[in-house]
Design goal:
The complex is a heterodimer of chains A (about 400) and B (about 250).
Chain A: H1 3-15, H2 18-56, E1 60-65, H3 85-94, E2 98-113, E3 116-125, H4 129-133, E4 137-140, H5 145-149, E5 154-157, H6 159-165, E6 176-179, E7 182-190, E8 206-209, H7 210-218, E9 225-230, H8 236-250, E10 261-265, H9 266-309, H10 311-319, H11 324-360, H12 369-395, H13 399-403
Helix pairs in contact in A: 1-11, 2-9, 2-11, 2-12, 3-8, 9-11, 9-12, 11-12
Chain B: E1 6-17, E2 20-32, E3 37-42, H1 48-55, E4 63-68, E5 71-72, H2 78-88, E6 89-92, H3 104-113, H4 120-133, H5 149-161, E7 167-171, H6 179-194, E8 198-203, H7 206-209, E9 214-219, E10 222-228, H8 235-241
Parallel strand pairs in B: 3-8, 3-9, 6-7, 7-8
Antiparallel strand pairs in B: 1-2, 1-4, 4-5, 9-10
Classes of the chains: A alpha+beta (about 400), B alpha/beta (about 250).
C-alpha cells in the first residue's frame, strides 16, 4: 500500500475524532512545552553564570578568615580578625603566580549628598582592586599609593550611587559626599556592570582607600578579606597553593593544624554554580520528562480504546483488502501523528511560555536548538513506542470476529 | 458455458472448541457460474456463515479445493488473499459496517485505498459512479447517521461495487431492514445482477430467496437441497404493487 494513501487514511481517522485527538495530544503538548520551558530556564541560569564568569574573569581569588567548617559552627570574632596587612604584603612578595592583590574592609551605612541619601556599602581597598574585579573607570581616576598612605578621604563610586545621589549633577567627580559622618571627595566613577547571577547590584558600591576605612570608620587594624588575581587562568591552582602556603607561614600554623583562613577562586565558584544549575536543569527536565511520559501513556491508552472501539472498522478494512501490515501501519501512523503534531504544538507553546517566563519573571531563559530537536525526537519515539502495542492488537484481529463485533 | 467463477470441491472446515472438534462444513461441492444470483440458505448452525467466510477468503478451509476466478485459494498467503478480496470480491454486511462520521463518498472510496494502481482522481470517479449506480448520487456527502437504513445499505452496496468485483457476497443484507426497504435492496441487487454481476446472498428468509435464480440449502454442514427457480420474482414489480406509504409485515 502506498504511503500517501496510508497517511490519508490515518489523518481521516484522526479528524473523525477531533476533540478526542486534541485531548490525547494535550498530554504530549503539556509534556513537551514543560520540557522546553524547564530546559530553557536551566540553560538560562547556566548561561548567566557563564557570562558572568567571562565578564569577571576566572582568575579571581578571595581569601576569607576562618576555616572551612561545616555550617552551623559559629566562629569566634578573634578568628575573623586573623588577617593583617602583612598577609597582603607577603602574598605580594612571595606568590609568583599572583599578579595583583588587595585587602578588603567594608562597612555599610548611609551615603549622603545634599538632600539625598542612599543606603550602601563602602569598601576599603587598594588601587589594584579595580583590576582584580574587572571594574572600569567611566570618568575620573583611581586613588594613588600616596592617598592610601595618607588615609585620604577620597572615593570612587558605582553607577547606582551616581543615579541615587547625583540625579541633578552631570559629573559627580570633584563633588564631596558624606558616608556616615566622614566626607569623601569623589575622584572617579565606575562603568555600569549590572546585576550578578545572585541578583546583587554590582554598581551599588563606594570604593575608598582601605586605610581610610580602617582608621576613620571601623577603627580596626585587621583586614576582613583579601582579593587577589592569578596571573592567568592556568595559574589559578598554583596561585591558590602559593597563597595557602604563604598564609600558613605568616600565621605560623603547625603542619598538623587546619588553616585558619579559606581560599576560594572564582573559577571554583563558577564550577560549583554550574554544577548546581546542571543538577537543577536535570531535575526540572526529569520532572517535565515524567509529564511527557504520562502524555505518551495517554496516547497508548486512547489508541488501545480506539482499537477496541473500531473493531468493526478494522474487520471491514481487512475484508475489503487491507493487509495486516496495512492495519498495523495505519494505527502506528495515527499514534505517530498524534504524538508529533502534539510535539510541534508543544514546542511552540514551550517557546511562548519561555518568553513569557523571561518577560514576566525576568528570569534568564535560553532555548537551545538541541532541546527542540531532543523534544521532537522524543515525541516521535513516544508515538511509535506507545502506538506499537495497540497497533499490533489491531493488526492481529480476526476479520470474521471483528466484522461481527458488537 | 464458460469456466465457473467459483468452483468448490469437497470443502471441509473443522473448528476445535476445547477438546471437541466441530465439523462446520463436511464436504461441500458448489459451482457458481458468471451472472448467477444464488441464495445460500439454512438455519443458524447449518454452516452457511462458515461457507460465506470461506467464499469470502476470510477463512481457509481445512480441506478441499476452492477456485475463485481461476485462482486456487489454497495456495495463497494471507497477503495474497487480502489482495484477492480487494480485487475480486465485494462484501455487503447485515449491519452495513460503514465508517461513522465519514461521508457516503469516502465510505465508498475505501476499498480503492488498498489498491495501489488507482490514483486519487480515479478513486473519486469510480466512487461517484458506484453511488450513481445505487441511486444515491444526491447523498454523496451525507454521513451514515444522516441516512436511513436502506440508504446506508445502498452505500454499502456501492462500496462492494466500486472495485468492479467478480463476485458480490451479501451476508443477510436485508436482515436489519423492513420488508419494503428489503424489496428495494433486492430490486437493486436484481438490477445489478441483470447487468452481469454475480451475487451470492446468504439469508435464512425464503421470502428473500425467491428473488434469486437458485438456492442452496445447508444443513449440518452439508448441502441438503439445491433448487433452481425458472422464474424468479421481480422485486421491482412487487414494490410497484405495494401501497407506497405503508410497510407490509
Amino acid at each position: 500500500m502506498n504511503y500517501s494513501n496510508l497517511l490519508k487514511i490515518s489523518m481521516n481517522a484522526i479528524l473523525r475524532n477531533k476533540f478526542r485527538a486534541f485531548l490525547t495530544m494535550l498530554g504530549i503538548i503539556i509534556g513537551v512545552a514543560s520540557v522546553i520551558a524547564m530546559l530553557a530556564i536551566g540553560q538560562g541560569s547556566k548561561q548567566c553564570i557563564q557570562d558572568e564568569m567571562s565578564e569577571m574573569g576566572t582568575n579571581m581569588i578571595f581569601i576569607m578568615p576562618g576555616d572551612d567548617r561545616p555550617g552551623g559552627v559559629r566562629m569566634s570574632s578573634s578568628e575573623l580578625q586573623s588577617m593583617k596587612l602583612t598577609d597582603v604584603e607577603a602574598i605580594k612578595s612571595e606568590c609568583s603566580a599572583v599578579s595583583s592583590v588587595s585587602p578588603v574592609v567594608n562597612s555599610n551605612g548611609q551615603a549622603v549628598f545634599g538632600n539625598k541619601n542612599w543606603p550602601s556599602n563602602i569598601y576599603g581597598v587598594n588601587n589594584q582592586y579595580l583590576e582584580i574585579r574587572k571594574y572600569q573607570l567611566a570618568s575620573g581616576r583611581n586613588f594613588t599609593e600616596r592617598e592610601i598612605k595618607t588615609y585620604a578621604k577620597v572615593c570612587v563610586i558605582g553607577r547606582t550611587i551616581v543615579e541615587n545621589l547625583f540625579s541633578e549633577i552631570e559629573n559627580p567627580v570633584g563633588q564631596t559626599i558624606r558616608f556616615g559622618s566622614i566626607p569623601f571627595k569623589v575622584i572617579g566613577v565606575l562603568t555600569e556592570k549590572g546585576e550578578n547571577s545572585m541578583g546583587q547590584d554590582q554598581d551599588d558600591l563606594i570604593l575608598a582607600p582601605f586605610t581610610t576605612i580602617q582608621k576613620r570608620i571601623l577603627s580596626i587594624t585587621y583586614i576582613q578579606s583579601i582579593f587577589a588575581s592569578a596571573a592567568s587562568e592556568e595559574l589559578n591552582t598554583l596561585a591558590i597553593d602559593q597563597i595557602t602556603e604563604t598564609l600558613r607561614q605568616t600565621h605560623k600554623i603547625k603542619s598538623t593544624s587546619e588553616d585558619d583562613f579559606n581560599v576560594r577562586s572564582q573559577s571554583e565558584m563558577v564550577q560549583t554554580f554550574t554544577a548546581i544549575s546542571d543538577i537543577m536543569t536535570a531535575l526540572l527536565g526529569a520532572i517535565a520528562g515524567i509529564s511527557l511520559l504520562v502524555g505518551g501513556i495517554g496516547i497508548m491508552n486512547i489508541m488501545y480504546v480506539s482499537v477496541t472501539e473500531r473493531t468493526r472498522e478494522i474487520g471491514l478494512r481487512l475484508a475489503i483488502g487491507g493487509r495486516e501490515s496495512d492495519i498495523m501501519t495505519q494505527f502506528l501512523v495515527e499514534s505517530f501523528l498524534l504524538s508529533v503534531v502534539g510535539g510541534i504544538i508543544g514546542i511552540l507553546l514551550g517557546l511562548v511560555s519561555s518568553q513569557a517566563i523571561a518577560s514576566i519573571l525576568s528570569w534568564p531563559v535560553v532555548v537551545t536548538p538541541a532541546s527542540i530537536i531532543f523534544a521532537f525526537l522524543v515525541c516521535s519515539v513516544i508515538g511509535i513506542f506507545f502506538g506499537w502495542y495497540p497497533a499490533r492488537k489491531a493488526a492481529g484481529l480476526n476479520p470474521i470476529d471483528a466484522l461481527r463485533y458488537e | 458455458m464458460s469456466q465457473p467463477v467459483i468452483s468448490i470441491k469437497g470443502i471441509k472446515k473443522d473448528f476445535k472448541v476445547g477438546e471437541i472438534t466441530v465439523h462446520a462444513l463436511r464436504g461441500i461441492d458448489l459451482e457458481v457460474e458468471e451472472g448467477e444470483f444464488i441464495a445460500i440458505m439454512g438455519a443458524s448452525g447449518s454452516g452457511k456463515s462458515t461457507m460465506l467466510n470461506v467464499l469470502g477468503c476470510l477463512d481457509q478451509p481445512t480441506s478441499g479445493s476452492y477456485w475463485l476466478d481461476g485462482v486456487d485459494i489454497g495456495s495463497l498467503s494471507k497477503n495474497e488473499l487480502a489482495g484477492l478480496r480487494n480485487q475480486k470480491l465485494g462484501f455487503v454486511f447485515q449491519s452495513y459496517n460503514l465508517l461513522p462520521r465519514t461521508t457516503a463518498l469516502e465510505n465508498v472510496e475505501l476499498p480503492l485505498y488498498y489498491n495501489n494502481k488507482i490514483t486519487s482522481k480515479d478513486r473519486r470517479e469510480k466512487a461517484i459512479e458506484a453511488l450513481h449506480a445505487v441511486g444515491l448520487a444526491d447523498r454523496m456527502h451525507h454521513m451514515p447517521n444522516q441516512m436511513s437504513g436502506g440508504q446506508q445499505q445502498r452505500v454499502a452496496i456501492a462500496r462492494a461495487l466500486v472495485n468492479d468485483p467478480r463476485v458480490i457476497l451479501a451476508d443477510e443484507a436485508t436482515g436489519n431492514l423492513d420488508t419494503r426497504t428489503s424489496y428495494e435492496i433486492m430490486a437493486l441487487l436484481q438490477y445489478l445482477n441483470e447487468k452481469g454481476k454475480t451475487i451470492i446472498f446468504v439469508t435464512h428468509e425464503h421470502e428473500i430467496a425467491r428473488f434469486m435464480n437458485r438456492s442452496v440449502q445447508f444443513k449440518d454442514g452439508l448441502v441438503a437441497r439445491k433448487d433452481k427457480f425458472e422464474k424468479r420474482s421481480l422485486a421491482a414489480e412487487l414494490l410497484a404493487m405495494m401501497p407506497s406509504n405503508q410497510n407490509l409485515i
